[in-house]
Design brief:
Strand order of the largest sheet of chain A: 2-1-3-4
Radius of gyration of chain B: 23 Å
Structural class of chain A: alpha/beta
Number of helices of chain B: 9
Number of strands of chain A: 6
Oligomer: heterodimer
Strand content of chain B: 25-35%
Order of helices and strands of chain A: HHEHEHEEHHEEHHHHHHHHHH
Number of domains of chain A: 2
Number of helices of chain A: 16
Order of helices and strands of chain B: EEEHEEHHHEHEHEEHEEEHEH
Helix content of chain B: 25-40%
Radius of gyration of chain A: 30 Å
Chain lengths: 401, 295
């Protein structure tokens, strides 16, 4: 019933159809933005090289052009260029001495101080060009300069217990962790509230007594949570499928690497912990819905819960850097944070088999315990409709009912 | 058959139900009567196992109520509620399916009941479109759709117009004639008087009186006289014979004092006024109720 009701809802259908576009927009827009650079299709950034050898300007120009930066050698004084920058002829200028190999410090002058992108670009292009000039000046053959100046690249390999080595990618792990956290966060906001409201509605629409004359409160709540979660998982399924298809189609064109570093094993863990977190939070919301008198109160009750969601979110990097620290281990067992934290620990290979089992078991136990408690609160709540009551009272009543 | 043995339920300091005992026979209509807040709903909720008594026992066919027994019970709670967004036929069939009634049977019964209560055209609308009275009739259908042997109805007539009261009363009587055991609570004495075979009057959670309607009437009856007359009665002269009187414009109801006979009263009155009607009446349940519960 709950499932059908939810699925038949117009808002649900609209969201299901719009969802992938929203997700795609969120996932793809930053990619498009960074790919097209700060220029965003606008005019190129014009930079003057004051007093530079025109030959040098020609050397570095090809490396800068793709990013939307044009350099040109300009004669004159700093004062005259200050005026030109202020007038908008150039976006900024670099004062270069005639002997480039002796430079220790370069000053980039521009109107907007926060132009990090241009700054970084200039550093990465002009820096090596100057080092190369120094090497040539010191007598190194020009043909060898490139190979001598190159610093070695770093790669990482992780040993796993099975003896096989795996490639690991900190950024990929970070992104997967973030994805899971955001997924759970969004879901809880979307559906947790809905379940809370649905349970609350059972009380406010007075249907609860009819239902209780047929089924046990426990069954009623389980049914509600199952129905709503099936509906939302269906929605998620549709979203993920469409998004994945869209990414496959458009991802390569946009130069995005989607799902990098996510092995099938990790994918399984991702699904497992997502489902665990989903049911746990849904059951907590059901309990909150059972205790609340109206939607406003439900919202108030929900805040601490959202705080628990935020903990792993803000702690992702500390946990990834020290996955065996006592705090990380504790958080990976505490049911409300366990799914995300344990997933992070697994993804960096810092969780033992029994730890994973214990974490899963604790989360499942907590979910069932909370549903039991909410069933009791629910039963007690029937007597108390119309009267605000405190949590302590609820727990007391739940015990002696 | 339902049996309550010294059942007690407190809500904090308030004694909602206090040492209440009752037993229904198989078949028949059993009424629980009492003023607001007497503990009627609490009693029914305890029978339904929605509330747990603090002490005492409640037996259903000689043993505590089991989850599986719920399929044989139809319960109409005092707090009416329907899923607001669900079509009426869909919801009723769903509720029947929760009682393990197969869809085909439920569908057939549904049409009969909707027809009976003139709700056929509302079959596929949602409860939002219904008036309060219609919603209540829909709720009654939800209570009986799985054809239960036992019906527990909490204030089934409250909020209904007289025509609906009649059709609901007929439905209940018909269910009784088909052998159902019906237990219902009400403070509407008129209806109770017309359909109850046995009843229990409670006040402040305690039994005030119980038994069959005829027993109760017999116990309290035959001591009231209705007199319609022309002229004026000297009520002072009646003081020894009459313990209580209710005056109406053209007639009076006199309650005879202990040991006084209607004949003696009639003799006395004949000398004072022209009597148009003199009737020894059984008191209405309403009178008994008001007297017992303290009007």
């Amino acid at each position: 019933m709950e499932f059908r009701l939810t699925v038949a809802n117009t808002a649900f259908i609209v969201l299901t159809i719009l969802g992938p576009f929203l997700i795609a927009a969120v996932a793809v827009l930053p990619g498009i933005l960074s790919a097209s650079g700060g220029a965003m299709g606008g005019a190129p950034t014009k930079i003057a090289l004051l007093g530079a050898d025109p030959q040098f300007a020609r050397e570095i120009a090809p490396a800068l052009r793709p990013s939307g930066v044009e350099v040109s050698s300009v004669p004159g004084s700093p004062e005259s260029l200050d005026a030109q920058v202020l007038a908008g002829t150039f976006d900024g200028y670099l004062a270069l001495p005639s002997d480039l190999s002796r430079i220790d410090k370069l000053e980039y002058v521009s109107r907007n101080a926060a132009d990090f992108r241009v700054m970084g670009l200039l550093q990465s292009v002009i820096g090596p060009a100057i080092v190369a000039r120094r090497l040539v000046a010191a007598g190194v053959p020009a043909s060898q300069v490139a190979s001598l100046a190159r610093s070695p690249s770093f790669e990482e390999r992780r040993l796993s217990r099975s003896g096989k080595t795996k490639d690991s990618n900190f950024v990929a792990v970070l992104m997967t962790g973030l994805t899971l956290s955001m997924l759970i966060y969004m879901t809880v906001l979307l559906y947790g509230q809905a379940i809370g409201r649905s349970v609350l509605a059972e009380k406010t629409s007075k249907t609860v007594e009819i239902m209780l004359s047929s089924v046990r409160p426990m069954d009623l709540l389980f049914g509600k949570i199952l129905g709503k979660s099936m509906a939302s998982l269906l929605q998620y399924g549709i979203w993920v499928t469409i998004s994945a298809a869209a990414m496959k189609l458009f991802g390569p064109r946009l130069g995005l690497d989607v799902g990098a570093g996510l092995s099938s094993g990790m994918l399984a863990y991702l699904v497992l912990f997502f489902v665990l977190a989903f049911f746990l939070y849904c059951s907590v919301y059901a309990a909150l819905g059972a205790s609340a008198q109206d939607e406003q109160q439900l919202g108030q009750f929900a805040w601490p819960l959202i705080a628990f969601l935020a903990i792993p979110l803000v702690m992702i990097s500390p946990i990834l850097m020290a996955p065996r620290s006592p705090l990380a281990v504790a958080l990976s067992f505490f049911p409300l944070t366990a799914p995300i934290v344990m997933f992070l620990r697994i993804s960096v290979g810092a969780a033992r088999g029994w730890e994973i089992l214990l974490s899963v078991a604790l989360t499942v136990a907590a979910a069932i315990g909370i549903i039991r408690l909410s069933a009791k609160i629910f039963k007690v709540g029937i007597l108390m409709t119309g009267k605000r009551f405190r949590l302590r009272e609820v727990l007391l009543l739940a015990r002696y009912d | 058959m339902i049996e309550l043995r010294k059942v007690r339920k407190n809500f904090g300091q308030v004694k909602a139900v206090d040492e209440l005992s009752l037993s229904t026979k198989e078949g028949g209509i059993f009424g629980i009567l009492g003023p607001n807040g007497a503990g009627k709903s609490t009693t029914i909720k305890m029978i339904m196992n929605i509330l747990k008594p603090d002490s005492g026992s409640i037996l259903f066919n000689g043993r505590p109520l089991r989850e599986s027994d719920k399929d044989r019970i139809g319960y109409l709670p005092e707090e009416r509620g329907l899923y607001r967004k669900v079509k009426i036929d869909e919801m009723l069939l769903y509720l029947a399916s929760l009682k393990n009634t197969d869809r085909f049977t439920a569908l057939k019964r549904l049409d009969l009941w909707l027809d009976r209560f003139d709700l056929k055209e509302w079959k596929t609308s949602t409860p939002e479109a219904l008036s309060k009275g219609m919603a209540q009739k829909v709720q009654f259908i939800a209570t009986v759709l799985h054809d239960p042997e036992f019906l527990f109805l909490d204030e089934p007539f409250s909020g209904l117009d007289p025509v609906s009261v009649d059709s609901l009363r007929e439905a209940i009587l018909e269910l009784e004639s088909r052998g159902k055991t019906i237990l219902f609570s009400t403070h509407n004495m008129e209806v109770a008087e017309r359909i109850c075979s046995r009843l229990l009057v409670i006040d402040h959670g305690r039994e005030v009186i119980s038994g069959s309607l005829s027993d109760i009437k017999a116990r309290y009856g035959r001591n009231t006289v209705a007199v319609e007359f022309d002229g004026s009665i000297d009520f002072g002269s009646l003081s020894g014979m009459v313990s209580n009187l209710s005056r109406f414009p053209r007639w009076v109801e006199l309650e005879l004092a202990e040991g006084a006979s209607p004949q003696a009263l009639l003799k006395l009155l004949v000398g004072q006024v022209a009597i148009r009607r003199f009737e020894v009446v059984a008191p209405s349940l309403h009178d008994i109720f008001v007297k017992l519960v303290g009007g």
